[in-house]
């Protein structure tokens, strides 16, 4: 089959859960290969990796250990410090922002694997038109995802951004806010819980999945998935770009088996992307 190419913290301490006891990257796995240690957020990233580990890795000669993170800051730091061999949780703009703020880091994004659409959700309101004067909207506070959230609000006609604001837009780039919406940036992982205190929230796809917002809240809007630059992919240390095992893992993440698993498991909420479809930057 082919998959059509369409297409993020919290507290100061990351909760890390080891999902497979295969030893550290330097230890020899039972099959003779070094275990690949991959850091990931829970849904859908760790679930996809679990499928690869349980169903595909052995036949490819791979031994995969998964470390689950609950924030967006620790996985890149752990990769830079050599605690991971790869991570799988972020899109290109997020990595680019991290690298711009961490000059000693040398990480490479391999390829897009899947897309999770941002959504505007509410516990109380039934549609975008119900967002009246002075309504409160929570958005993610990390740079690349803040801009992404504001772009979604603009696409819904709620605000207008300054020309050229782009994906790095902030609240200061709002040129027109006709309803006087109160836009409040908070930590991305807290957004689902914020729905009890705000009129609506723009929530990252993975956190919306974890909180089951499609069923537990009203979906007011979803971002356009066509030509979306926010697909998530595997990231490695730049010195390991040609590592055979890491490239095998990337190939497995783009396999038909993984694509079928993603499509069946998330029914279009998570969209698999064909290898190389978005090109390399």
Describe the 3D structure.
By secondary structure, the protein is α/β, with parallel strands linked by helices. It folds into two domains: 17-116 and 228-272, 3-Layer(aba) Sandwich (D-Maltodextrin-Binding Protein, domain 2); 119-222, D-Maltodextrin-Binding Protein, domain 2. It is built from nine helices and 14 strands. The strands form three sheets. It has a seven-stranded mixed sheet with strand order 1-3-2-4-13-5-14, with helices on both faces. Strand 2 (35-41), helix 1 and strand 3 form a beta-alpha-beta unit. Helix 1 packs across helix 9. The longest helix has 15 residues, at 42-56. It is globular, with a radius of gyration of 19 Å. It starts with 16 loop residues before the first strand and ends in a 9-residue tail after the last strand.
Distance between the termini: 26 Å
What is the CATH architecture assignment of the largest domain? 3-Layer(aba) Sandwich
Number of domains: 2
Helix content: 25-40%
Level-1 CATH class name of the largest domain: Alpha Beta
The average pLDDT score comes to 88
Q: Strand content of the residues, in percent?
A: 15-25%
SSE class: alpha/beta
Q: Can you tell me the CATH topology of the largest domain?
A: D-Maltodextrin-Binding Protein, domain 2
Radius of gyration: 19 Å
Q: Report the strand count.
A: 14
DSSP summary: helix tally? 9
How is the biggest beta sheet arranged?
Answer: 7 strands, mixed
Poorly predicted runs of 5 or more residues: 1-33
H/E series: EEHEHEHEEEHEEEHEHHEEHHE
- What is the topology, as strand order, of the major beta sheet? 1-3-2-4-13-5-14
Shape: globular
Full CATH superfamily name of the largest domain: Periplasmic binding protein-like II
Lipidation (S-diacylglycerol cysteine): 22
Protein name: Lipoprotein
Membrane topology: Lipid-anchor
InterPro entries: Lipoprotein_NlpA
